[in-house]
Amino acid sequence: MQNANDSDAHITVRFLKSDGTEQDENYVVGANSRWTLDASKPLGQGVDSSAILESDVPVVASDPCTSPTSRTPRATAGPEAMM
After folding, report:
1. Which terminus of the chain has a smaller tally of CB atoms within 10 A, N or C?
2. Phi-psi bin for 74: left (phi > 0), alpha (psi -120 to 50), beta?
């Protein structure tokens, strides 16, 4: 996620897991900075999920769909999304 604002972005990520459960996590992305979310940290390795992002300021999010072992993009999910 990229935060090009002069103030911090307070972001809630709602993970929608393949078992039907949801998990909310809160993050702060500093002003004029970018940050990468490693979903395996809050969810654990190998958990299939999608995510809904909410932010109190506009941010840019992208999904490179990287492999958990190589960090090499497998496919792209489309262009970046502005929130």
Report:
1. C
2. alpha
The CATH number of the structural domain formed by 2-82 is: 2.60.290
Rounded to whole angstroms, the Cα distance separating 53 from 62 reads 11
- pTM over cut 0.90: no
For tokens 């969810």, name the residue. 43
DSSP string, 53-77: EEESS--EE----B-TTT--B----
The length of the chain in residues reads: 83
User: What is the side-by-side strand order in the sheet with 9-17?
Assistant: 22-29, 9-17, 49-55
pLDDT (tens digit per residue) in 14-44: 999 999 999 999 999 999 999 998 889 999 9
β-strand pairing of 22-29 with 2-3: unpaired
